[in-house]
Automatic annotation (TrEMBL):
UniProt keyword Hydrolase present: yes
Organism (species): Sphingomonas edaphi
UniProtKB keywords: Hydrolase
Protein name: Alpha/beta fold hydrolase
SUPFAM superfamilies: alpha/beta-Hydrolases
GO MF annotation, one: carboxylic ester hydrolase activity
Domain Serine aminopeptidase S33: 64-156
Amino acid sequence: MSVLLALTVLAAAAVSERPIHAPGPEARLAGTLLDAGEGSPVVLIVPGSGPTDRDGNNPLGVTAASYRLLAKGLARKGISSVRIDKRGMFGSKAAIADANKATIADYATDVHNWIKSVRSETAAGCIWIAGHSEGALVALTAAQRPDDICGVITVAGPGRKLGAVMRNQLKSNPANAPILDAALSALDTLEEGKTVDATTLPAPLQPMFNAAVQPFLIDILARDPANLAASLRVPLLVIQGDNDIQVGVDDAKLLAAAQPAARLAIVRGANHLLKVPAGTDRLANLASYGDPSLPIAPEVVEEIAKFVKH
């Protein structure tokens, strides 16, 4: 028993957490390295949309800490990880004056800067990229240039172009009828790579098509996740919970079908934040967004560990 205890202590002691940085456009980017020990594989965790921090939390009511919990789970499997703050936000706030001006292409550039810094810090030969939600699109975009990327892991990532998703959402709500034509017309214009005068739109649409976010929208609307997956030259793992009320299993199937060599893992009961809520209703699902004590689904860690350590 004492020998086993000693081995456990030694294993725990090998894991350490420290700050890590990468070059940014105006100032450095900030993140956290959870080091599982010399020679361990390294996963870079790319955050989802909006003001989501390196731990997977945001000031809009999400405190589930999913990325931090994922990092700890991977460390227990002997896998290091780096979780990051996006340019213009949190620890990376000084990297760009206006976070609204960042595009998917910008975030993909940052991924490559992170790869260089992480390889220098850890001596890893290549880095695994795990993107969550919108971060999955960033990961797929970055991996079109596969330099020093071991493989890509998409977690709750979209499988369709954003324009198709937005059109479906707008049309599915009868309350949008008075503004539907204007919204669809604005989407058409942005998809052509042109800007829209948001002040001419109905008031409910003006925040969605605000001038400040139009460069981002033009960039993301042009990207097709399935096409990006199809052109990958590195291994791909697609993870999707079947209790996700933001991204569906069909999206995951589209991604996996686009890349014949991809591995698809559907995690039973897991929601968008990788957790299995206490109940099956929408309220229980949303309640888990604010519960950092609820663990992430162990299958998520298991699937990533199997993929990385193949």
